[in-house]
Design brief:
Elements: H1 2-48, E1 62-64, E2 67-73, E3 79-85, E4 93-95, E5 114-117, H2 124-132, E6 136-140, H3 146-157, E7 162-166, E8 174-178, E9 181-184, H4 191-200
Length: about 220
Amino acid sequence: MASAKKSSGAARQARIAEMRRAEQARERRNRILVIAASVVVVAGLVAGGVFVVRSQSDDTSAVDAKTSGHFTTGKDGVKTWQGKLGRTHVAKTVTYPVEPPVGGDHNQVWMNCNGDVYDKALNNMNAVHSLEHGAVWVTYNSKAAKADVEALAAKVKKTPYTLMSPDDKQPDPIMLTAWAHQRTVKSASDPDVDAFFAKFVQGEQTPEPGAACTNGLSQ
């Protein structure tokens, strides 16, 4: 039994190490692309006086996330969205049927999710894009114990394709969200935390496996 656990742990560590190497490779490629794009943008600004507008829209008009369906709860306590989840990039504010959202139309820019821990609530439209890339999003409200928040933050910081933020609009103290999946956990030491991470960090539910979790927004 102990040997099996060690083998499982070693496999997970190898998987995380491989994701880190892949992410570093993507970062190198992205830096080259950013430099090239910057040259084009500067040339455009000089030639035509183009105004650069931040992709994070301040438009207050809301659009529906193009989601339809409902949750079903499995024996393991994980809720799975049964129905449609839009994946269109939109500039306007999106309203979602659940909090935190588990998918739907979203902003074209994702939140950095390479083990990023935020101390302020996130814009849902950017966080949903992170879910599309295969990230697990850890959220908590004011009822969560400080010790649990600190322990979860430490876990997130060492796990690629995860992010964490407060969310006082959510119904439970601690919640874990992946694309089309969500669950509540009792504490940071709840074994369901590790189980959720193992299954959904870059899991089979990921619409865009291998997509970057860096070079997005960092709040």
